[in-house]
Structure formats: C-alpha cells, structure tokens
Amino acid sequence: MRRLSILTCVLSLLGVRARAQQVFTLASGDRLSGQLRRISGSTWVIAYGGGDVAVPAGQVKGWISPIVIGLRLADGRVFSATVDTASDSLLLRRADGSEERVAPATLAAVGSALDLNALRPTVIGWFTPFHRFWAMTASLGLSLKTGNSRAHGLGGTFELERKSAQDRIDLGAGANREASQVPGGPYQTTVSKAYGYLQVDVYADPLLFASFGTRQEQDRFQDLRLRSLYTIGVGYQAATRPATDLRFNLLAGYRRESYYSDGANTVPIVGAGWALKQSIAPAVFTWRVDYTPQAGDFMNYQLVSNATVISGLYKNLGLSVGILNEYNSRPQPGIKPDDLLATTTFTYVVPRK
C-alpha cells in the first residue's frame, strides 16, 4: 500500500510537470516545448533543452500555455490567464471566462499568476525607487580628552548619492566642533567647521559627462566666515565596476571668500580632480582630491584631499576613519597653509540594491 501511495505521488508530480510545458510555434514552422522565462524588450527568452533560447517576438506565431500565468500587456494592463493560439494571434482566457486576442508583440512581461504586483511597471521618479538609484551614509562621532588639558568634540556627516545611467548626484554636509577647558574655567569653542556640497554629473555616454558643482564652507580656525565655490566642467568615467568606481574631471568657475577678521575676496578658478570608490569587503575606501588654482596664477591654489575608510560592524552599521587635508598656498595672515582633520565615527549606510 505504501509503495502504491509513493508511486501515485510520483506520477502526479510528473503530470504537473508535463502540463507546465508550454509550446511555441515559430515563423519557420519549428515548434519548441519549454517555458517562457521573461520578455526583454522585443525578445522572448525561452527555456529549452537545458538552456535559454532568445527569440525575436516577431518570429513567434503561436504559444500554448495550459497553466495560468501572469501577463502584462504593452498598454500596462496586468492579469492572469491561460494562453492558446488562434489563427495569427494569441487567445488569452481569464479566470472569469472572458477572452481576448492579442498579437505576440503586445506582451510586455510574464511571471507568476500568484504575484501580479511583481509584473506592474516600476514608476521611475526623482526619488523612486529609492533603493535602486540612491545610497545614503550618515556618521556621528564623539571625542573626550582629559589629563593635562580637557576637551571634547563632536563630528558628523551626511551624504546622499544618486547614480543612474543618465545622471549622478552627490549631495552632502558635515560639521566638526571642539571645545576645550582651561583649568578652572568653562568649556569654550576652539575649533569649528561646517560644509555642504553638491555635484551633478549628466552623462552624454557611459564614459563622458558634463558636471556642475558647488561647495559652501565655514571654518573659524581658517578665519573663513564663508567660502563659496561654483564650478562647471567635463569629466571622464575611467572605471564603473561593482567594486571600483573612478572618475576624473576638469572644471572652471569662481571662488569667493569672506573672513571673520575683515574683507572678502573673489577670484576665477580652474581645476582638476578625481573621485575613487573601492570596495574590499568588508571595507569601502573613498578618496576625493580637488586642485583649484586661481586662473592665470597657478601658484595661488587650494588642494583638498578627503579619504575615508568604512568597515562594516553589524548589518548597515560600521566604523569610519577619515582624513581631510586642506592646503591653501596663500592663507590669511597668521593662518597656517596646511590644515589636517582626522575623524573616527560610527557610520550607518543604506546601499543601493
């Protein structure tokens, strides 16, 4: 009795498998028995003979699917139906008994009848779908010093990156603040720095892009009430692989600086730079360098190097170590030309999927 039961189950499964086979008739008269895996543009990908066969939709003259499948038509309608061949068109039979004849070329997608939502077209917007185009990184860190002197500090950054085949947007902001205490006195701010930046790249092809950027910065230690940079330029995408992203750019624009001490200064600038992002699991290394001399006076320049390593700790939480080095060849009187900031922060990353 047990052997008979097992045999019945096996025969039942074989019967289901047989019924799952679909039959396709091509313009050449050939017939294929398999399953339609997906529709990619004007091409049907059919599982046949242990592999996949790509067939132009215009070459498909008939299709029989006795099992109910999910369908999306070119007009956006999504429903489940069986498929049969009727003359030079396909006959779709829905569960409610209604029928519709369509040409093979009007089918836009196929899938499971149990998950019709997966067949609905994705609406591409500026922020949707977020996980497809956008990535986010936020970090926050604290420091505390005791002994011969007492000081505490706070630093944080926030970055958004949009990346698609047509455009790329980098948007971010950060702030660092440190307060020290003289013996017996209150804490007083000794160093504070804040910045924000935006860069928009629009790709003419996979390698070349036009670029617009701005950076706003305030730094009490450098006597900067506000430094504003506005640039336009062109760039070259040298590498765009899952683990490596490298791009170079040339730019021109102007820089305006106003100072806490007094006065302001505006100069035209040219420049060059690169941005590298390298993944070496479980760490991600980013390094951006910008060289911006004054137009006509290349000895009057600023060089900014910003390198960061983020190592994963648990899921999206990581530890970030960064070094920001800023060199100004002609600083304000009394200000050193080289400024180095090292940070260690906890980081939360929301990657693209």
Report on the structure:
- With 353 residues, the chain is mainly beta.
- The chain folds into two domains: 2-119, no CATH class; 130-350, Nucleoside-specific channel-forming protein, Tsx-like (Outer membrane phospholipase (ompla), Chain C), CATH 2.40.230.20.
- Helix content is 7%, strand content 68%.
- The chain is built from two helices and 21 strands.
- It has a twelve-stranded antiparallel beta barrel. Strands 1, 2, 3, 4, 5, 6, 7, 8 and 9 form a nine-stranded antiparallel beta sheet that branches.
- A hairpin with a 4-residue loop joins strand 10 and strand 11 (150-163).
- The longest helix has 19 residues, at 2-20.
- The chain is elongated, with a radius of gyration of 31 Å.
- Residues 1-19 have low confidence and may be disordered.
Integer average pLDDT: 87
| Radius of gyration, CA atoms, in whole angstroms | 31 Å
User: Could you give the order of the helices and strands?
Assistant: HEEEEEEEEEHEEEEEEEEEEEE
Biggest beta-sheet profile? 12 strands, antiparallel, barrel
CATH topology description of the largest domain? Outer membrane phospholipase (ompla), Chain C
Please give the CATH class of the largest domain. Mainly Beta
CATH superfamily of the largest domain: Nucleoside-specific channel-forming protein, Tsx-like
By CATH, the architecture of the largest domain is named Beta Barrel
How many distinct helices?
Answer: 2
Keywords:
Outer membrane phospholipase (ompla), Chain C; 21 strands; mainly beta; 9-stranded antiparallel sheet; 2 domains; elongated; disordered N terminus; 12-stranded antiparallel barrel; 2 helices; single chain; 353 residues
